């Protein structure tokens, strides 16, 4: 029989314990149960946190690959895969996203007593306003699609008529979701919500890819038609028009107008996917309250030169676009002069943009402000997207450089093409550095840390000329010799009532109302003008490329080096990324403007 030693007041007593075996076996079984329960709890808790993001990412990627497979089959004119199949697939995806958004809004409506956390850096009012404008243009495009397909109703599938209706509903619901819920940090139903948000992300990416394919096909057909009209090449042009006559007189107008609205629809979907991706990254995130606050907007003083030069660049770009589009379809000589004109204009604009960005970088280097290392998924995504979307135009530029250096022909724009390609690489490099530097710089306090502004008085300062009247009880201990009152900073922000204590006259200008008189900060004014100028220049370059000013198709040098099919494939990859880069740079520069 086992013995148990028991200690009583310093004495060790040996006593028999017949329950020792049973107690040890029961304790071991209890330990096993505790280990199993802990393992079960850890699996149930850590599984969604660690693997739901990975699983939902795989789900979204496979959705995109299914759509890409359908688009490749349609691009190859495979009769077994038609446009209706792709439209049916994207329609189902949009309906699923609509159901998820309805579920999310209903759940949030029932949880009004517990409002979700908000990430104030996820987006801003002007970004949502810009997306609303793009959504309105997308709705107009859907109306044109409906009008076109109604005219061809006898010979088109019902899917082509249902698709624009669902797309318009999807657009309106998505804009509502962006305005009221895109900043939410989801903490409930995290696994399910991850799949819902990533489904919305890849649905918009797939719609972007579909729009890019349609727009590229239309531009390529126009390019073939121009080359055939000039006698430079003999290619058949394939248009995907219904095989019947239109029953209305507006079908041709709708078909022509659609392709002028495609760039806006394309940018809408890719921007929405970026915002939704930020929301997906924020699921389950713990918000740092110290950095999660809105920044005060500074007054835009001295904002003259940047907007004026930017508007001049925008107006000039529109003029260049009109001249280019009208001249490129005429004789070979007019075509070459149009291409040369574009290259010279673009070189001048890119040179000024490089100088502006370098000036901004120089100001940051002189200022010596530390970097902001706080966690910000939106800012991190901005950096990654800027770099990723730059790859398209960089690849296109290096292909052009290789072509110029290796070709045997010598058109008048050969070396301007080389200089233009080099400046494209340099301009994106400098602009990316300027944007990233601006987004990651800690913002100085305008009232205290700016060396060009007058410093605020110390807490117990006896400089009565800068001290406003004292609020509340007067502490005579901190009274100046001439018995003027002194107040602390926190007391200045309290009630606006004034109690006793006259104020000493001084030469410092008195504040007007609740605003203090600040001296203008020259560095801040220069940075704001640079940001506005770069915004207008990026908009100008986006307009040129989006609406038909693409000399990469028309100069003939790259086609001579790489062949028509390979070079067309490169352009179909690079130009959409370049367009997205310009619009994303505009959004990032708006953020830079608001931070300066």
From TrEMBL:
GO cellular component, one term: plasma membrane
UniProt GO BP: inner ear morphogenesis
Residue intervals passing through the bilayer: 59-76, 88-106, 126-146, 158-180, 266-283, 303-322, 342-364, 526-544, 564-581
Principal localisation: membrane
Keyword line: Cell membrane, Hydrogen ion transport, Ion channel, Ion transport, Membrane, Transmembrane, Transmembrane helix, Transport
Protein name in the entry: Otopetrin 1
Record's bilayer topology term: Multi-pass membrane protein
Molecular function (Gene Ontology), one example: proton channel activity
Protein family: Belongs to the otopetrin family.
Annotated localization: Cell membrane
């Amino acid at each position: 029989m086992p013995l148990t030693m028991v200690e009583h007041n310093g004495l060790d007593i040996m006593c028999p314990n017949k329950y020792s075996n049973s107690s040890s076996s029961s304790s071991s079984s209890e330990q096993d149960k505790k280990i199993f329960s802990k393992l079960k709890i850890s699996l149930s808790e850590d599984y969604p946190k660690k693997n739901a993001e990975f699983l939902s990412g795989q789900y979204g990627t496979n959705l995109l690959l299914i759509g890409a497979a359908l688009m490749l089959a349609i691009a190859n004119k495979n009769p077994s895969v038609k446009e209706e199949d792709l439209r049916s697939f994207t329609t189902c995806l949009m309906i699923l996203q609509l159901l998820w958004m309805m579920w999310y809004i209903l759940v949030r409506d029932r949880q009004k007593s517990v409002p979700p956390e908000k990430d104030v850096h996820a987006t801003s009012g002007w970004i949502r306003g810009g997306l609303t404008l793009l959504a309105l243009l997308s709705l107009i495009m859907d109306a044109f699609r409906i009008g076109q397909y109604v005219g061809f109703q006898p010979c088109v599938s019902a899917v082509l008529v249902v698709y624009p209706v669902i797309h318009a509903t999807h657009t309106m619901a998505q804009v509502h979701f962006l305005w009221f819920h895109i900043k939410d940090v989801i903490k409930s139903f995290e696994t399910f919500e991850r799949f819902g948000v990533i489904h919305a992300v890849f649905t918009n990416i797939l719609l972007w890819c579909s729009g890019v394919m349609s727009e590229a096909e239309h531009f390529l057909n126009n390019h073939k038609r121009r080359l055939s009209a000039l006698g430079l090449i003999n290619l058949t042009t394939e248009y995907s028009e219904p095989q019947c006559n239109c029953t209305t007189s507006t079908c041709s107008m709708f078909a022509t107008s659609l392709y002028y609205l495609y760039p806006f629809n394309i940018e809408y979907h890719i921007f929405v996917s970026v915002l939704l991706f930020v929301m997906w990254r924020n699921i389950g995130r713990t918000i740092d309250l110290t950095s999660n606050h809105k920044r005060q907007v500074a007054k835009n003083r001295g904002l003259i030169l940047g907007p004026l030069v930017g508007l001049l660049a925008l107006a000039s770009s529109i003029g260049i676009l009109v001249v280019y589009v009208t001249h490129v379809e005429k004789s070979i000589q007019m075509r070459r002069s149009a291409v040369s004109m574009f290259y010279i204009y673009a070189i001048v604009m890119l040179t000024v943009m490089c100088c502006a960005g370098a000036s901004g970088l120089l100001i940051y280097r002189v200022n010596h402000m530390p970097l902001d290392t706080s966690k910000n998924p939106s800012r991190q995504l901005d950096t990654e997207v800027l770099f990723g979307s730059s790859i398209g135009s960089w690849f296109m530029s290096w292909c052009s450089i290789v072509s110029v250096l290796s070709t045997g022909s010598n058109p008048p724009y050969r070396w301007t093409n080389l200089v233009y390609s080099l400046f494209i690489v340099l301009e994106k490099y400098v602009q990316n550095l300027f944007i990233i530097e601006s987004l990651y710089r800690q913002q100085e306090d305008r009232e205290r840390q700016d060396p060009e502004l007058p410093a605020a008085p110390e807490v117990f300062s006896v400089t009565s000329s800068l001290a406003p009247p004292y609020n509340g009880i007067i502490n005579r201990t901190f009274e100046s010799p001439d018995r003027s009152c002194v107040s602390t900073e926190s007391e200045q922000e309290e009630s606006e009532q004034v109690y006793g204590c006259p104020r000493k006259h001084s030469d410092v200008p008195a504040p007007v109302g609740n605003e203090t008189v600040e001296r203008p900060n020259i560095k801040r004014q220069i940075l704001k003008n640079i940001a506005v100028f770069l915004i207008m220049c990026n908009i100008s370059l986006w307009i040129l490329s989006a609406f038909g000013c693409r000399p990469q198709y028309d100069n003939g040098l790259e086609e001579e080096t790489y062949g028509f099919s390979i070079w067309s494939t490169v352009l179909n990859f690079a130009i959409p990324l370049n367009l997205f880069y310009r619009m994303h740079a505009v959004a990032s520069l708006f953020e830079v403007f608001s931070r300066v």
